[in-house]
Q: What sequence folds into this?
């Protein structure tokens, strides 16, 4: 190709190219950025090529291979034009259908992108929320051009800006244009680009340099790579314009060795630019000389620091030096050097092309234009996101990023890589701009945004970044080198359960010292990960240190086996699973019963936190069905095999404790105290013990004989049960203490339904869910009739619906919930069960009015909702749609919008404090403001699970024992690690963990709606055994095979 | 000549002189470890920090590498400087407690605790040895290797360099390998400073014959 000798020739070429451009051209675009190549984009591209050649379509369909489009989650994907259809995550087998559809100008429906919220297909690429809500000035070009050909760039107006800069602008004019555009350094610090250029320009001297800093080392950030890969000419053009402005004749691109594709595309681009006379001597006949060289970085993070970069380019060790003198005064070889980030350079041609005013319209007043963020981590749509500077974090994470992965809650984002900081969820309204982020303790950095959810431990995050920094610090400044090591060391101690509270202050003090005393930017920001997590998540640090708990189950030494750590009572789930796999069912029962006095109850109604944390689930498989295994064992083994260990404290028999409430919390406390030799009296307001287990949970989930058996087993000679006695009516806490009880444990539960606050709630036919359930469960009284509506989306609502559907005289049951099904707090299997039984679900509606006839409910008015902004809880808030009110005829309305504890007044117990429908207690010791009076269970926490109540019961027994013996109530926490060794099965006996999870058989829906028989049955022996073998046995990492285990096995241990 | 404010005094300094030189000239003490006259300034030990600027924009810089600027406001012992310097010394004690030089500096600055896990290293990577080798002995036999926590000082590939003349200058300038406190091994001790106190590590009688020429030992007081 001939060299372009003048600007006229360039313009002529561009005109020719543009005149040949066909806007309605039929075309397939394949994204072949590094991420998509890793997912198989190269195969897709080859198959498309072959298809086009085989079908002789080469003239009709053009194939365009581009750099990164940014939607890396969906790779490999193709876009077809002119329909602009976007086909994500395709396979080579899908190619023929896509090509055929393109020829027929149609869409392949089933391959189109679907909105995960609504499941609606997005036909045009720009309909996809991920793309629609961005402002893609830089990335938008990537998808329109082939980076290894210059024509694509020319067609987009490429090098036009250079031409204009050479003819229409003076160097000062260029700098002025950049200044008015408000461009600030995209490398992270946000220094005004024009200022830097001005400084370099003012320096005397013939030789000056411009440098493109592409040493992008932040974990999780890759926008520079994408720009270099996808649009290298924009960077070259920007550098040429910059060179013209500052008076430099040569430039360097300092690029990571680890970016081979970027280097390759850049090399090709440089060669093409030289061939066309856009680089070299006498560019476009204007007498301007400029050329660019590539310098490959040695791969150290610190080399991205500009003074270290200069030394690297010079060929010495990359080690920062004191500024001033700044690089613009003394840079490479002592000559003025202007260093800018890739993204900054890529913005320069854009500014010249559209004009400063137009450019500055986007962004904030102090900082114009867009910024590319790489959104990665625990978010639906990972990828590159380009938004105007000043966009809120919320918008980027939720609207473009698609929000959290299923079932989790976003906790924070880490912005700016190792030098940046964490911004917690409650600060998500923060605009993404240089100044606001710095104020929040983070930093724009290169724009890496790592989204973190509940499964991320913030201490571990800080530790990860410190381990990165202690390796990547150059090591020159003593405080940065040693300080990062020491920070890591302390964090490591904390994650291993060896931390002390005073170390938190030391962390802060040391962090401040490192930040204050280091020479370069790396050291000055090195403590940010620690300081920002400490600032926003100090409670998590304290939880690690005081409670020895990692609530994200990440820190191994504090978690052990996640199933055990997740269980509120610490059941060794891994152990009974292992024993079931070995056929030792009796031993398995003992393991379950040891920590849980209600094993058969929990085998049916537990919310199985163990399964939620199972590593198999986290690894993308289905978690081990631990609750089903528990059910299998409790159904098979007679409870009498468990002999509880009793160790009576001396003098315990003389002490008496009163327990108020015979629910799971109260009965567990009584049982725990009985094992220690204390005598307890349990007072129960209803006629039967069981609390919520009996009054709230319907019999089809928990058969009454099973429950009764377990309660009976707990009432031993140390426990006296007084039913039908109500606190406040028959006795008070004061009277109990006067009667000689040495301690009182309040476990009354939360039995008061919350009210909707709508007129007419007291009308006949409107019932709080607890009243409705109690009427049936305790008195077999059926309150529902005709058309029944249930308000709410929790377990209580579903229970009420499923009870109502079984009652005679009920024609249909509908559950009305104000959000979508994804947000329903009820257990998924319960919702499934209800739907099978014919319960209808009305979503996104809220009741606003009740209308009766003759003082009995006849109609309920609802308003439709749509999901609005994300609230503090991480769920999208329902917003009523005005004018969508409509009435639904209903005969019965059951209100299940939450429960709270009944108020305990000062007359019942002086000195007790209530807040938000619960008694205020110290979380660790369950003590109330009144000495000797303890409270736990739903009464103290609000409505909670059975297993949480049992855990509170155990804790109360422990604390009351300590109280009665006059000891310190607080016990030093210990991590619950696996201790017992269970011989693993031989490798050939193990089951592939990818095997499907065992499912308990259920009674057919048609049959079960007519009675209250148990719905779920037990799994078979084969299924249980297979299921137990899927367990990954996380415990084996913590236990050791005892000496002589072989001998034991040969002797025939076990009780098969 | 340029004019700047040093601890509230308006002082004059020669163009190109460092803040450390100016402060020393006017008699303000600034502790140093990696600085030595005749060698190029390096800025590794961070002991010579001073605070420059005012208000929210003030920052700490190493005075040995920072050149005096016209109108600059410098404080050599502001609370921020002192606090940071103490932490630097605490970090140094955590790594090299047996260095008499470090002990003395720590003692002089009132550092009486060391809250990190105790290490016993021989080197704080101040780079004096490499600089004297290169700049005064014209040998350039040793230098830094690696980065971050893996940074070490030594000859390439740990093989004795051909250009090394075994002159010993590197040992002469080292702040940690000369004058090593040996704690409870009095026969090897170079100083009985701690014998004047009653530190936990010393059986006083064994140190009686020793001359004390340094400040009391800090290493003994730390855990």
A:
């Amino acid at each position: 190709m001939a060299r372009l000798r003048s600007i006229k020739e360039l313009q002529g070429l561009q005109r020719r190219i543009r005149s040949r451009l066909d806007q309605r051209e039929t075309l397939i675009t394949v994204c072949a950025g590094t991420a998509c190549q890793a997912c198989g984009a190269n195969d897709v591209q080859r198959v498309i090529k072959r298809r086009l050649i085989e079908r002789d379509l080469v003239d009709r369909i053009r194939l365009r291979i581009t750099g990164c489009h940014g939607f890396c989650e969906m790779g490999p994907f193709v876009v077809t034009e002119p329909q602009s259809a976007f086909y994500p995550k395709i396979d080579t087998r899908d190619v023929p259908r896509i090509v055929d559809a393109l020829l027929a100008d149609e869409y392949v429906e089933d391959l189109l992108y679907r909105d995960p919220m609504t499941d609606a297909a997005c036909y045009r690429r720009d309909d996809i929320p991920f793309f629609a809500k961005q402002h893609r000035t830089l990335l938008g070009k990537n998808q329109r051009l082939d980076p290894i050909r210059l024509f694509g760039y020319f067609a987009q107006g490429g090098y036009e800006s250079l031409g204009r800069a050479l003819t229409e602008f003076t160097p000062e004019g260029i700098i002025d244009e950049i200044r008015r555009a408000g461009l600030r350094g995209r490398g992270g610090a946000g220094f005004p680009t024009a200022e830097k250029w001005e400084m370099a320009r003012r320096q005397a001297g013939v030789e000056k340099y411009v440098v493109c800093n592409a040493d992008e080392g932040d974990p999780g950030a890759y926008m520079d790579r994408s720009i270099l890969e996808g649009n290298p000419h924009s960077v070259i053009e920007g550098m040429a314009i910059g060179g013209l402005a500052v008076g430099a004749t040569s430039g360097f691109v300092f690029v990571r060795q680890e970016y081979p594709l970027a280097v390759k595309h850049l090399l090709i681009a440089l060669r093409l630019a030289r061939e066309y006379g856009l680089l070299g001597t006498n560019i476009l006949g204007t007498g301007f000389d400029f050329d660019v060289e590539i310098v490959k970085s040695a791969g150290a993070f610190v080399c991205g620091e500009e003074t270290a970069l200069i030394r690297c380019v010079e060929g010495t060790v990359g080690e920062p030096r004191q500024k001033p003198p700044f690089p613009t005064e003394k840079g490479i070889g002592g000559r003025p050097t202007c260093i800018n980030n890739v993204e900054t350079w890529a913005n320069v041609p854009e500014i010249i092309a559209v004009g400063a005013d137009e450019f500055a319209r986007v962004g904030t007043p102090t900082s114009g234009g867009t910024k590319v963020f790489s959104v990665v981590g625990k978010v639906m749509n990972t990828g590159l996101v380009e938004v105007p500077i000043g966009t809120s974090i919320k918008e980027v994470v939720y609207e473009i990023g698609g929000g959290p992965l299923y079932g989790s809650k976003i906790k924070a984002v880490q912005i700016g890589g190792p030098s940046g900081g964490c911004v917690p969820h409650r600060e998500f309204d923060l605009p993404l701009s240089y100044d606001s982020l710095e104020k929040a303790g983070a930093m724009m950095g290169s724009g890496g945004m790592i989204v973190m959810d509940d499964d991320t431990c913030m201490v571990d995050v800080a530790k990860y970044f410190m381990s990165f920094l202690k390796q990547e610090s150059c090591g020159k400044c003593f405080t940065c080198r040693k300080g990062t090591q020491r920070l890591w060391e302390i964090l490591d101690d904390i994650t291993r359960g060896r931390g002390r509270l005073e170390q938190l202050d030391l962390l802060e003090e040391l962090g401040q010292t490192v930040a204050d005393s280091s020479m370069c930017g790396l050291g000055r920001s090195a403590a940010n990960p620690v300081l920002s997590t400490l600032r926003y998540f100090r409670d998590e640090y304290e939880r690690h240190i005081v409670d020895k708990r990692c609530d994200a189950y990440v820190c191994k030494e504090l978690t052990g086996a996640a199933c055990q750590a997740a269980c509120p009572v610490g059941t060794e789930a891994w152990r009974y699973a292992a024993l079931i796999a070995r056929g030792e069912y009796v031993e398995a029962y003992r393991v379950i019963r040891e920590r849980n006095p209600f094993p058969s109850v929990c085998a049916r109604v537990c919310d199985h936190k163990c399964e939620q944390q199972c590593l198999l689930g986290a690894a993308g498989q289905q978690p081990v069905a631990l609750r089903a295994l528990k059910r299998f064992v409790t159904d098979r083994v007679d409870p009498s095999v468990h002999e509880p260990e009793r160790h009576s404290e001396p003098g315990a028999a003389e002490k008496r404790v009163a327990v108020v409430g015979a629910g799971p919390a109260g009965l567990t406390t009584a049982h725990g105290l009985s094992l220690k030799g204390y005598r307890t009296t349990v007072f129960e307001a209803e006629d039967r013990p069981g609390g919520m287990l009996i009054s709230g949970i319907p019999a089809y989930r928990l058969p009454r004989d099973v429950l009764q058996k377990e309660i009976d087993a707990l009432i031993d000679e140390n426990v006296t049960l007084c039913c039908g006695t109500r606190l406040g009516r028959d006795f008070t806490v004061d009277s109990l203490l006067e009667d000689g009880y040495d301690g009182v444990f309040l476990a009354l539960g939360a039995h008061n339904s919350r009210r909707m606050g709508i007129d007419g709630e007291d009308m006949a036919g409107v019932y709080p869910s607890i009243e409705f359930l109690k009427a049936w469960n305790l008195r077999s009284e059926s309150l529902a009739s005709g058309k029944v509506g249930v308000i709410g989306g929790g377990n209580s609502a579903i229970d009420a619906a499923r009870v109502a559907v079984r009652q005679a005289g009920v024609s249909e049951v509908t559950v009305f919930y104000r959000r979508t099904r994804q947000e329903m707090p009820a257990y998924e299997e319960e919702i499934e069960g209800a739907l099978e039984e014919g319960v209808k679900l009305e979503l996104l509606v809220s009741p606003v009015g009740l209308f009766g006839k003759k003082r009995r409910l006849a109609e309920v008015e609802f308003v439709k909702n749509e999901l609005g902004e994300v609230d503090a809880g991480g769920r999208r808030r329902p917003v009523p749609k005005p004018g969508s009110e409509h009435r639904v005829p209903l005969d019965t309305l059951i209100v299940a919008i939450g429960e709270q504890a009944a108020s305990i007044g000062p007359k019942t117990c002086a000195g007790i404090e209530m807040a938000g429908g619960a008694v205020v207690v110290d979380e660790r010791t369950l003590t109330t403001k009144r000495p000797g009076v303890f409270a736990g269970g739903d009464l103290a926490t609000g409505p909670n699970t059975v297993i949480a109540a049992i855990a509170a019961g155990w804790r109360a027994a422990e604390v009351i024992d300590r109280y009665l013996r006059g000891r310190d109530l607080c016990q030093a926490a210990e991590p619950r690690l696996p201790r017992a060794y269970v011989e693993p099965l031989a490798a050939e006996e193990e089951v592939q963990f990818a095997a499907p999870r065992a499912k308990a058989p259920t009674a057919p829906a048609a049959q079960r709606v007519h009675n209250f028989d148990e719905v779920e049955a037990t799994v078979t022996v084969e299924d249980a055994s297979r299921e137990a073998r899927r367990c990954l046995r996380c415990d084996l990492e913590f236990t050791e095979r005892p000496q002589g285990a072989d001998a034991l096995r040969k002797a025939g241990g076990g009780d098969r | 000549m340029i004019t700047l404010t040093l601890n509230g005094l308006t002082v004059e300094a020669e163009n190109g002189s460092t803040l450390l030189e100016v402060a020393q000239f006017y008699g303000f003490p600034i502790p140093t470890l990696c600085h030595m006259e005749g060698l190029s300034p390096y800025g590794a030990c961070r002991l010579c920090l001073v605070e420059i600027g005012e208000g929210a924009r003030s920052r700490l810089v190493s005075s040995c590498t920072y050149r005096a600027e016209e109108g600059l406001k410098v404080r050599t012992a502001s609370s921020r400087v002192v606090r940071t310097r103490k932490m630097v010394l605490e970090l140094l004690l955590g790594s090299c407690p047996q260095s008499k030089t470090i002990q003395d500096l720590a003692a002089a600055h009132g550092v009486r605790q060391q809250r990190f896990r105790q290490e016993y290293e021989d080197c704080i990577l101040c780079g004096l040895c490499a600089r004297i080798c290169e700049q005064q002995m014209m040998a350039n036999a040793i230098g830094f290797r690696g980065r971050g926590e893996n940074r070490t000082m030594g000859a390439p590939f740990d093989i004795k360099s051909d250009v090394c003349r075994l002159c010993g200058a590197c040992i002469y300038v080292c702040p940690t390998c000369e004058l090593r406190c040996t704690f409870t091994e009095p026969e090897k001790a170079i100083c009985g400073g701690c014998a004047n106190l009653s530190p936990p590590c010393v059986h006083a009688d064994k140190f009686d014959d020793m001359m004390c020429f340094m400040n009391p030992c800090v290493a003994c007081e730390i855990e």
